[in-house]
Write a structure and sequence with these properties.
This protein has 334 residues and is an all-alpha fold. It has helices at residues 31-35, 40-50, 52-69, 71-78, 121-157, 159-174, 177-187, 193-220, 224-231, 236-272, 284-291, 299-327, 329-332; strands spanning 90-91, 97-98. It is 66% helix and 1% strand. The relative contact order is 0.12.
């Protein structure tokens, strides 16, 4: 004969629940539960919507990209080309200083003009954004594709392949990259500067991505689904593209977004030093270098390109930090 514990209707009391175990029927709250069943892109969109600073950064990034894509039309909208001189906007008796206040800002010249030449700053800043972002995006693409391929191959195959690629990464990273870039760009004269800068910057950037991807590949290649694909007769190419690559995309995307501001700064630094984009092609770094001689008499000539460069680097950096925290949280805890 069984006895029942006191309770309504003589029903037996529920069994005690161990400490820390979830109560039956209860729902789990917290960020981990919210992320359950979400893809990385869904999680990224949800987290980006929750962060006002990141939303602002994303809007600034999109504005810069739109400005770079539509640079010819924006320049035409302002009424001036980046190489067109306007001698009526400068005072020849004051060393070519812009007429009017704030560097010659007027309805004809929305951001003022350059001293001496009278070229429209709005047109030059807009076309400078096109040059800077083109070099940054193209160099980042070279770095990411090369680094991802090298990292996956080194991590998956191991052995001699890993040793050769790892030593190549160490060798490339051991070069003083900025000095080597200056030397290479100074020697090459009659070449397309944009193509040359893209190639040179890309050559020295891939080992960082390769090391990140190699570490991720080493942790993925012995997972059950990879072993199952290998036992099932899948080729190495299929395993690398179908099983390994999707697992490393999160860190790669986060790393890519953080690479872009560094590429923008590198292009600006090389142009500032006089070995980057050559006149009359506009560049933010080149404009900052030319404005140094006028910062006392025409400070707006220095402030305007510097502000655009600062905002672009800051927006891409904040967006990259947010994506790293979302897509690669372990990599962000350093």
């Amino acid at each position: 004969m069984t006895t029942t514990a006191p309770g309504a209707g003589g029903q037996a009391a529920p069994a005690p629940v161990p400490d820390g175990a979830p109560t039956p029927g209860a729902t789990q709250d917290g960020p981990g539960a919210a992320a359950t069943g979400s893809s990385p892109w869904q999680l990224a969109r949800r987290e980006l919507r929750r962060r006002p600073a990141v939303r602002v950064s994303l809007c600034v990034v999109l504005l810069f990209v739109l400005m770079a894509v539509t640079a010819p039309w924006l320049g035409a909208l302002g009424g001036w080309s980046p190489e067109e001189f306007d001698k009526s906007a400068i005072d020849p008796y004051l060393g070519g200083q812009p007429l009017g206040s704030l560097g010659g800002i007027s309805p004809e010249h929305w951001l003022g003009v350059e001293p001496v030449t009278g070229r429209d700053l709005f047109a030059r800043v807009v076309h400078g954004a096109q040059v800077s972002l083109l070099i940054a995006f193209a160099a980042t693409a070279i770095v990411v594709v090369t680094g991802t391929a090298a990292g996956i191959v080194a991590g998956y195959f191991g052995g001699r392949t890993d040793a050769v690629l790892s030593r190549l990464m160490d060798l490339t990273m051991s070069f003083p990259s900025l000095i080597f870039m200056i030397a290479m760009l100074s020697v090459a004269k009659d070449v397309n500067r944009i193509v040359l800068m893209t190639a040179v910057i890309g050559v020295f950037g891939w080992p960082g991505v390769a090391r990140v991807v190699r570490g991720q590949t080493l942790s993925l290649k012995h997972r059950e689904y990879v072993d199952a694909a290998r036992v099932g007769g899948s080729s190495a190419w299929r395993i690398l593209t179908r099983d390994i690559l999707p697992g490393v995309l999160g860190p790669v995307i986060a790393y890519t977004t953080l690479l872009i501001p560094g590429m923008i700064s590198t292009e600006a630094a090389l142009s500032y030093l006089g070995v980057g984009v050559r006149p009359p092609t506009p560049s933010w770094g080149q404009m900052i270098a030319e404005s140094v001689a006028f910062y006392e008499t025409d400070p707006m000539y220095f402030v305007i390109p510097s502000t655009f460069l600062f905002l672009a680097v800051l927006a891409f950096t904040l967006l990259g930090d947010a994506l790293r925290d979302i897509l690669d949280p372990r990599g962000g805890r350093t």
